[in-house]
Amino acid sequence: MIKEDVNKVGVVVTLMIGTLMAALDMSVVNVSIPAMMEQFHSTVSQIELVVSSYMIGFVIVMPMTDWLKNRLGYYKLYLYCLIVFIIGSLLCGIAWSLPILVAARIVQAFGGGALTPVAMAILATLFDEKERGKVLGLWGLGVVVGPAFGPTIGGMLTEKFGWPSIFLINIPIGLTGIFLTQKYLRATDKEKIRKIYPFDWSGFLSFTILLVSFFSFIGSIHNIEKKSTLEITLSLMTIFVSLGVFLKVELTKLNPMINLKLFNNLGFFSCITVTFLRSITLYGGMFLIPLYLQLVMNYSETKSGILMFPGTAFVAAFMPFAGKWADRFGPTRISVIGLIILALAMYLFSTMGFESNEVSILARMSLRGIALGLVVAPITVATMNAVSKDQFASASAFNSIIQQIGGALGVAVLAIVQQHVKLSQISLHALSPIAAELKGISFSFRIAFVIILVSLVPCFFISKKETLVRLR
């Protein structure tokens, strides 16, 4: 049960502010890239570091959440993360060169990367299973809505005040978050800090090498035909060797950085699998939809944003209710309904053509939003319900990591599929570039449709707590 001296509303609002800022900065930079390229006289490949450095730093710091929580406690950890994030934002806003901006983005990511798993763990700790769904549904709005509104907000700020404003705007919001943290979260951390153990440097280093090599390979996969066989082989070897080292270290250490024994829990394993597959289609879809609207339908960026807005609005509207329904009826039923609707939405997206009107596009976007609103909160609830209280920090960190990895993989895979189909349609069937573009997008959405259908299988086991295999 939640502690009596903790203000429920204050805690949720405080955690939403930090989570929203961190999630927003995953996508707010995208529309400001041209302005940064002009000021720093950089190429696309150079300026990509502004985006990729934040993503990599964001994910690297997540596994440290459990160790830091045991050293500092939730309150201090969340407060320090906000401070680091604000310092990073200030440095980004005053950066006078591209290397300084990239370095500042890494600092910003180290603060922002822990905010989401820490917030998720705090809420799971404070609220029991009867209230957890409703609360996580409300808090989860920041996780989902932030990236969706990022490009719109970033475009407006860049146009009016220049690209530094997309970072400097975080300072007053972050200071507000610090004030609220001191006011509402201090009472959440009265338990004695325990389980102080040495930091797992071998696990951290192998995990960092794994992530950097993975994201670097994913980021360059669209230009893979320009790479030599040796380069591709070395990249893949680095990924698999670092993965093998990481697994060996984490499974044999007494106090590993990431508790892989969580996968021994059928419910947790099923939840993470659904989250991974859902993230592939969520982020992949966010990549494909603008391609259709702007390249095929020739809509402007503004009009595309307007057509995509209902989807975000429905996510925001349904998430709190989905959390309540998960508390009442169990997460499995609500998640299955959401995934079925999401599969239908992916199929309908695959049927879009030149003749599709704005009403039909809005209907598809709305259906997708409703589906995501029904899926995200119940799966999050089931993830935390599947583990014990002392595993909340590890579970929330791994949940956040899987979302980012699934998202990166989804964009890369669906982009490759779309491009391959497009080029094959042009060469084999002599289609026009726009018609081939549409064929590629449609086929990619069919892939997303199949992935969602596959995710229904583990969804039926998200409330199970049986043991899978004994990990040692």
Notable traits:
472 residues; mainly alpha; Growth Hormone, Chain: A; 0% strand; disordered C terminus
Tell me what you see in this structure.
- This protein has 472 residues and is mainly alpha-helical.
- The chain folds into three domains: 1-198, MFS general substrate transporter like domains (Growth Hormone, Chain: A, Up-down Bundle), CATH 1.20.1250.20; 200-256; 259-472, MFS general substrate transporter like domains (Growth Hormone, Chain: A, Up-down Bundle).
- Helices cover 78% and strands 0% of the residues.
- The protein contains 17 helices and no strands.
- α1 (8-24) runs antiparallel to α6 (98-126) and α7 (129-161) runs antiparallel to α13.
* Order of H and E elements: HHHHHHHHHHHHHHHHH
Question: Main β-sheet: number of strands, strand sense, barrel status?
Answer: none
Mean pLDDT: 80
* Number of β-strand runs: 0
Determine the oligomeric state from the structure: single chain
Summarize the entry for a quick read.
The protein is an all-alpha fold and 472 residues long. It has helices spanning 8-24, 33-40, 44-61, 65-72, 74-93, 98-126, 129-161, 165-168, 170-185, 201-219, 229-252, 266-296, 301-329, 331-350, 358-385, 392-429, 433-459.
Describe the protein's topology:
Blueprint: H1 8-24, H2 33-40, H3 44-61, H4 65-72, H5 74-93, H6 98-126, H7 129-161, H8 165-168, H9 170-185, H10 201-219, H11 229-252, H12 266-296, H13 301-329, H14 331-350, H15 358-385, H16 392-429, H17 433-459
